[in-house]
Amino acid sequence: MIEYPRLTADLVVLTIRDDRLKVLLVVRGRQPFKGRLALPGGFLEHGESLEETAARELFEETGLDADRLHLKPTGIYSDPERDPRSRVITVSYLAIAPNLEMPSPGDEILSTDWYEVDDDLYMNLAFDHARILEDALEQARALLEQTSIGTTFCKEPFTISELRRVYEIIMDIQWNQGNFQNKVLGIEGFLEYSGEKGSKGPGRPGKLYRAGPVRKLNGLMKRPKTAGTLVEG
Amino acid sequence: MIEYPRLTADLVVLTIRDDRLKVLLVVRGRQPFKGRLALPGGFLEHGESLEETAARELFEETGLDADRLHLKPTGIYSDPERDPRSRVITVSYLAIAPNLEMPSPGDEILSTDWYEVDDDLYMNLAFDHARILEDALEQARALLEQTSIGTTFCKEPFTISELRRVYEIIMDIQWNQGNFQNKVLGIEGFLEYSGEKGSKGPGRPGKLYRAGPVRKLNGLMKRPKTAGTLVEG
DNA sequence: AAAATAGTGTCTATAAGACACTATTAA
DNA sequence: TTAATAGTGTCTTATAGACACTATTTT
């Protein structure tokens, strides 16, 4: 009798809330790892592609609609010992969202929320989800420099300062305001002016932009070599 | 009765032979797609990780030893219809090799060889292997600019001109000889001088180098913006 | 000697980054 | 009117790339 491995899809959904990079997690309501934090995800069902599995599980476990997100496969984890029950192979998907509503827990889930990514969090994740999260974050940081993925953290339309804040938080550095502005406006097709202005605080309101058609940034938006550390707050 | 998908690992093994980018393929000896070209690969067996599957299948089908290669997972293909027999999900691995010996076909394989990558080849591949190959090639080209993967195409020790030829063939452009030399020698930890010189043709023999410890090139080695087209031959 | 490739350096155009100054809003 | 942020431009420095010249080998 051959032991067929079962397949799951897990999601690393990132967003920025309260000026911090956060990841969507659930508290498991079932064994194994009952009561522990985990990435949302679950088993492949008949006739589904794995991306469909990911979208379905996201909705079932957290109530979030994957149609608004772009799912990008980031890794596969096939260590025979990674699940204590039986052989389970998982595929991880990365998704990035603007600051969304609070998720609501589905069946078999005790709670779900956005969690700040820090060392403490890594210690508390079920299965090998710390490893999966770490790999996905590394990819997200690489994509930030190479693609226009940064704009997907912002609710459209957004100001250049909101976009700059995204880069500052994820790269953990401080960008020069004027240079950042010149830089992104100099990349043709990166941003599209919406024709409006907007303000979410004191000071002169900035022009509001949408993401342009360009996806590959070809290494523009790399972190400045002489980057200062991010000033907290 | 739930239909469990079965899992395979497929390999995209690239090399440069006869001044051309080539990929390792097999001619299938079994249905489906008997007599057709395909990527080497096969089913996961009990207790294996998928990377172990890839290494084992590579050896069984082509006689090549994966210990000398670095396998990098590049994609997952889970379309329910991708295999005409039954549900099969495959994970693709990219490996890059210096010009190796000829492979020798294993059981269930009619023949195996290195094939030049061109449009004609894509038309003749079994399953969705054209898509898998295409994705892997795109990744390999990206890795060439961002990492030191280019050196793995060269048998150590190698001259800078041999390395330049790799970049020229894969990027399909011509590099200025002097500038390329200055550039790679200027990247600390990229190349290590072996202390020797070598010649494989007329002209002054070049110094022989090995790959240095640096893996991430952080966007150095990008194609020159003003690149001329590669002169054939 | 001629042909071929390796190695080195210089010059120029471009881009990255520091920084200052002006503009426009809220308080 | 002051504080805060947006927008623009200038200057400096670093880097990319063109190109030329020297060096070392085979034929």
Automatic annotation (TrEMBL), chains A, B:
Coiled-coil intervals, chain numbering: none
Domain of life: Bacteria
Keyword annotations: Hydrolase
Organism from which the protein derives: Glycomyces mayteni
Record CDD domains: NUDIX_NadM_like
Nudix hydrolase domain segment(s): 5-137
SUPFAM superfamilies listed in its UniProt record: Nudix, Winged helix' DNA-binding domain
Similarity comment: family membership: Belongs to the Nudix hydrolase family.
Name of protein: NUDIX domain-containing protein
